[in-house]
Amino acid sequence: MMRKQTIYDYFWITIGSIITAAGLVMFLIPNKIAAGGVSGLSTVIYYLFGLPVGMVSLAINIPLFIIGVKEMGAKFGIRTLYGIFLLSFGIDLLNPYLPVLTHDPLLASIYGGGVSGLGLGLVFRSKGTTGGTDLVAQLINKFTGISVGKSLMIIDFCVIALAGIVFNAEIALYAFIAMMITGKAIDIVQEGLKISKGTFIISDYSEEIRKNILEKMDRGVTILKGKGGFTEHNKDVLLCIISRSEVSDLKRIVHNIDENAFVIITEVHEVLGEGFNENAFKD
């Protein structure tokens, strides 16, 4: 079973790396859009010195990988090395064969960011990585205490700023757009498009509301024990996770029973378990 899962992971790391390389080759690199990371830095170096983006990326990543293994241990394992080589060679191998689909920098930013983010999302979902600045960010976190997220933002900002200096400020702005879209695409691949809503309901008629939700919506309800901060009265707080399309139904049920009920509706990024994403634990 473990071997089957490993093969499955490497398959999607391969597909994801190829898609990422395609996004760079068809959209970002030919339009000088250096959207952060090692690939962005390699794009700048390519236009300065004419060196192939993939080989420059490999030359930067290998030392980072060695330092990462030395300082952080074996977690920078074979999947990272596999992703580094696949993306680096993929960029240079695909470059002669894939067409440049647009020379409009805005379209290139949108589609390049989306395609690259799709590929990276598949890689990350399969517990892989393509190396790059996430290695640097983890090293910075170890030695300075700065969070990985902040470190990544700082590094990407520096790469985009360098692109702005080498090319022009407008290109840097497009690179920022591409970076944002890449991040959003990664989130969508990892978390999915099925946005759920978390609802908290506080009412004097919580038992009647609970029964109606169970009977009419066929959704589970969790009863939390709460206490009013002003009245100091004990109350049941109903927690119910629903789909976006069910929000109106739930509000109607609550309103028909208790017009004075206090309802909080929040966005939930991912729900695992019965009635929602039941297969997610197998990923």
Automatic annotation (TrEMBL):
Organism for this UniProt entry: Orenia metallireducens
Residue stretches making up the DUF2179 domain: 219-273
Subcellular location: Cell membrane
Recorded coiled-coil stretches: none
GO cellular component, one term: plasma membrane
Protein name: Uncharacterized membrane-anchored protein YitT, contains DUF161 and DUF2179 domains
Membrane-topology annotation of the record: Multi-pass membrane protein
UniProt entry keywords in alphabetical sequence: Cell membrane, Membrane, Transmembrane, Transmembrane helix
Principal cellular location given in the protein's record: membrane
Matching Pfam families: DUF2179 (PF10035), YitT_membrane (PF02588)
InterPro entries xref list: DUF2179, N-reg_PII/ATP_PRibTrfase_C, UPF0750_membrane, YitT
